[in-house]
Write a structure and sequence with these properties.
This protein is an alpha+beta fold and 701 residues long. The chain contains 20 helices and 29 strands. The protein is globular, with a radius of gyration of 32 Å.
């Protein structure tokens, strides 16, 4: 979008118009990146860009309203601060202000493009009005159509485009008359833009602040005046900007002058009124806030809270690297990263950014005990090392070779209770003076990164073992049968040591008959996977022994009852006779299959089910025989294809039947993908999904 000004301008115009029509104070547009399942903030209205640093790029799975709106494909409304804290605690920690919020997906004709976020002042009612909901929905549809007609460029901008909301003022309320009015008042007055910069200051205000107007204009108060350099004061400004409510606070101008600041925000900025207070320092009634010389900016504190929360949610080592690159590098102005893990006595590079591949090869697998290098020393001592320039690095490590043109470095040891986990190196293209607060925050983050990296490595190891187990339990290939075309999809939703419980199989009985099996073991665990393997083995053994479909399920059921696994199994057994054009089904509590006998025709088959496997030792499983015309498609699937949070399974099945009837059936593999995309358009599945498609080929009867 950065390379397409016209498109960005149009998108910003639609956003600004939506903010005005809904009466919102703040608006933002997120688009889904083309290469990764990430949301990128591309347009912003009513809020400074630097406020949004923690949310400029979010995973589609992030626990935030806009991601939920996209996943659920509906408007998400958060009525206030308490509801935000209850439903989205991580987001609430970074935005501890009172406001109402709406998020809605940008659902186009072909795909979901992203989402819109709108925020209202703190005095907004807890529920959105029908008029507001109508405007929000219409605005989202309008923007989605715009994106359908003019898709965004492949590379989205690194920062959002700031869009002003123009407020209309009567011409008589501006100009010299208004300025003269303000100058005549005994109290001070100044104006801030939404970025916090002083755009206007009266002589009385300058006198009260003890600084000339020329030294105040264009600066932020907490930067121009050391006695206002306190997170509490900057936070008052942030509260006014986000919540759009008046804010008042007291501050001590050294040595003994108390001032009261009254902030009045609107969509264009903040008007500030300054009055004096005659309390002595420490006197009765003095404000609780006290003067401090220099502290970490409030924005950095909120960013630290956000990064700490984000590090607790990363899952894989790849996620850890991505989080550091996307958020920590930008937060501290760094351009390079090398993340190493301690493994087998060496530092092996797990991820990097901003370095050529040949440089990384020279740094990979260095001995862990190399104390003559910065990385080895910080791991040995447990203390970080900061080098503002090459001269500083050379002075401390004259024999250490530099393999890049970087000009400043932060070496952070990743250690847990004395055990080295790895080392994180942040580097800069230019000399960088590390401030005291930067060093403190990076040191704190190093501990959090160590724990995140350690958890991620354990997860990756477990996931690799689970994947190998799952691969061993499911068929690697399916047999070929003349006259039968097959396509399968198996998509587990489990993470870490969670194993998908779905299973499927296709058994060739002779040249014209086959048995197709699909099922779902209760739960997602190693025990469920082991039971899945036992069920498949039992079904395979009884089928090849010549048992009928009902006998296969009954005998497998008795086996499970004898094993007493405390887990239940749903299963569907389909016997295909291509010579007689007949399909015979037996079901153990499984969702019914779908049949497409001809183009533009499809239905869910009415199969009389028996009980789940493992409940009743003497259970019987009725047979259902159905004609199977040549060219027909049978779709066996697990419940993950039709059971989604917030949807009616019957309606979901009906919608899936309609989609199957109208879909292009020429490529069976593409049809399998199409069914899954229809069921889970965002790809964020909450359950395993298995699909087994069978097509009898014309002319084989």
């Amino acid at each position: 979008m950065s390379g397409d000004g016209t498109f960005g301008d149009v998108l910003g115009t639609v956003l600004a118009d939506l903010v005005r029509r809904t009466g919102a104070a703040i608006g933002g547009v997120y688009l889904i990146e083309q290469t990764e399942p990430m949301l990128r903030l591309v347009a912003l209205c009513g809020l400074p860009v630097d406020f949004t640093a923690p949310w400029q790029r979010l995973p589609l799975t992030a626990p935030v309203p806009v991601a939920d709106a996209i996943r659920l494909d509906r408007l998400v409304w958060v009525g206030g601060q308490d509801e935000m804290a209850r439903r989205y605690p991580r987001a609430s920690a970074v935005l501890p202000y009172p406001f109402a919020l709406a998020a809605i997906p940008l659902a186009g004709v072909r795909r979901c493009w992203g989402g819109i976020v709108l925020m209202w002042p703190a005095d907004h009612p807890h529920e959105a009005t029908p008029r507001e909901r109508s405007h929000i929905t219409a605005g989202a549809h309008r923007m989605a159509r715009l994106l359908d007609d003019s898709p965004p460029p492949p590379d989205l901008p690194d920062e959002p485009r700031a869009v002003p909301v123009i407020s209309v003022r009567h011409p008589d309320q501006t100009g010299l008359a208004a300025l003269d009015y303000l100058e005549r008042l005994p109290e001070g007055a100044l104006a801030l833009d939404l970025e916090g910069r002083i755009t206007f200051v009266t002589a009385a205000a300058a006198q009260l602040l003890g600084r000339g107007p020329d030294l105040l204009l264009g600066t932020r108060p907490w930067q121009a005046l050391p006695w206002l350099d306190d997170p509490a004061y900057e936070d008052q400004y942030r509260t006014a900007v986000v919540s759009r409510v008046p804010v008042s606070f007291g501050a001590l101008r050294p040595p003994d002058q108390w001032l009261t600041f009254h902030l009045y925000p609107d969509a264009s900025g903040i008007s500030v009124r300054i009055t004096t207070r005659d309390e002595a320092v420490g006197g009765t009634g003095a404000p609780a806030t006290t003067w401090r010389a220099s502290v970490t900016p409030t924005g950095r504190l909120y960013q630290l809270v956000h990064l700490a929360a984000a590090l607790t949610e990363v899952v894989t080592v790849r996620d850890v690297v991505a989080l550091i690159v996307e958020q920590i590098l930008s937060a501290f102005g760094a351009q390079g990263l090398v993340l190493s893990v301690a493994e087998a006595g060496r530092l092996k590079i797990a991820g990097h950014h901003g370095y050529p591949a040949e440089n990384i090869e020279r740094l990979d697998a260095l001995p862990l005990g190399t104390e003559f290098t910065p990385a080895g020393q910080v791991l040995a001592s447990g203390a970080p090392a900061f080098f503002p320039s090459p001269a500083d690095l050379d002075r401390s490590y004259p024999t250490a070779s530099r393999v890049s043109g970087k000009q400043a470095w932060a070496f952070l040891p990743l250690v847990i209770t004395g055990r080295p986990v790895g080392c994180c190196i942040l580097s800069y293209d230019q000399p960088h003076s590390f401030t005291a607060d930067e060093r403190a925050v990076l040191t704190s983050l190093a501990g959090l990164m160590a724990q995140a990296l350690d958890r991620a490595r354990l997860h990756d190891t477990q996931h690799r073992l689970v994947t190998e187990l799952q691969r061993a339990l499911l068929p690697s290939t399916l047999p070929a049968l003349p006259g039968l075309e097959v396509a399968t999809r198996y998509l587990p939703a489990g993470h870490g040591v969670e194993v998908g419980g779905d299973f499927y199989d296709l058994l060739r009985l002779d040249d014209s008959t086959a048995a197709a099996v699909i099922g779902d073991v209760e739960g997602h665990s190693i025990a469920a996977a082991a039971l899945m393997g036992q069920v498949r083995t039992s079904i395979h053994a009884h089928t090849t022994a010549g048992a009928t479909p009902d006998q296969v399920l009954a005998r497998t059921n008795r086996l499970l009852a004898d094993l007493e696994p405390d887990l239940l199994v749903a299963c569907l057994y389909a016997h295909l006779d291509l010579r007689r054009n007949e399909l015979t089904l037996a079901s153990a509590g499984h969702v019914p299959p779908l049949l497409r006998p001809a183009p533009q025709q499809a239905r869910a088959l009415d199969v009389e089910p028996g009980p789940l496997l493992g409940i009743d030792t003497d259970a019987r499983y009725p047979l259902t025989a159905i004609p199977l015309p040549a060219g027909a498609i049978v779709a066996l699937h697990t419940d993950g294809l039709v059971e989604r949070p917030g949807t009616d399974p019957a309606q979901a099945t009906s919608d899936l039947v309609d989609h199957l009837a109208a879909a292009d059936e020429h490529d069976l593999e593409a049809l399998a993908d199409s069914l899954i995309r229809h069921a889970w358009p965002t790809g964020q599945r909450t359950d395993d999904v298995t699909v087994l498609l069978l097509r009898t080929m014309a002319g084989t009867a």
